[in-house]
Fold this protein.
Amino acid sequence: MPDDYRVVVVSDIHYASEGEQARRGYEARVIQNWSQKLFVRLFRQFIWLKDPLGHNHLLDRFLAAAGAGDLVVVNGDYSCDSAFVGLSDDAAFASAQFVLGRLRERFADRLVAGFGDHELGKTSLFGGVGGLRLASWERSCGELGLEPFWRRELGPWVLLGVVSSLIALPVFGPDTLPAERAGWEALRAAHLARIREAFAGLRPDQRVVLFCHDPTAVPFLWREPEVRSRLDQLERTIIGHLHTPLILWKSRLLAGMPPIGFLGNSVRRMTTALNEARYWRNFKVTLCHSLAGCQLLKDGGFGELRLRADGTAAQWRVHPLPW
Ligand SMILES: [Fe+2]
């Protein structure tokens, strides 16, 4: 038995295929209001990412720096989702397919590929374009082979991966098509049943690391008695989605703020998540940086989890990929 297990975690790769590269300016193009356009441009240029389609080279840098792992977990968001409808869009699918191909070639059966929110589609920040699509769900699970719910054991450690967008569907409901809403609800019910079963089936000596892309899902997990009663066995919850600790820090600061409903769906979605961010502490939320990080800090990288084989301790470390 080894002294410890090494788990490599990478999140929010946001690769851009040729088809996505051809859509430069995709975010601003769908915004009609000039002040919102200006806000997005300045936010992109100085804080978030000036060129979201310009960081493909970081995939190679990650592959070179990752080293060997007992497990390599991808915590979602493979493409740039430049059509806002997830992987039902051919260009976004090509991005995700390329990334998965490279990762599978390198890590083979040690790779676990989970879901982010962009695989399924996401309404644009302003402009209200796109949203979740069942066709993206089917293509992600089928053609691409992503695992909606996954479970792996490393000695006493149980690693579980879930789909945050399904769990937090009450928040994302308005981003679905009315004709598809019942389909999403059915997927959510089945997904929650598997999560309840997994937590209820834990042996008292087992410890859990949960992988959940978007922390918006965490308060919904808190409402599940089977999950809540096992939180003492939860070592931590590894999230992605926020890309940089700057946003995690800001989210903690704003935890509990009231939801804002009059500034559009994206603001409603984000403030609803912040309203419930106080529950994140119970789940010991740990952020896996995106590969690129943010423009302001250029703080991208990937994570490494060391799990002691006797189940007594876990250590998290960030490997920066400066640019
Ligand atoms: Fe992301």
Remarks:
- Residues 93 and 300 are 23 Å apart (CA to CA).
- The longest strand covers residues 301-308.
- Residues 12, 14, 77, 116, 118, 241, 243, 290 surround fe (ii) ion (CB under 6 Å).
- The chain has 13 helices and ten strands.
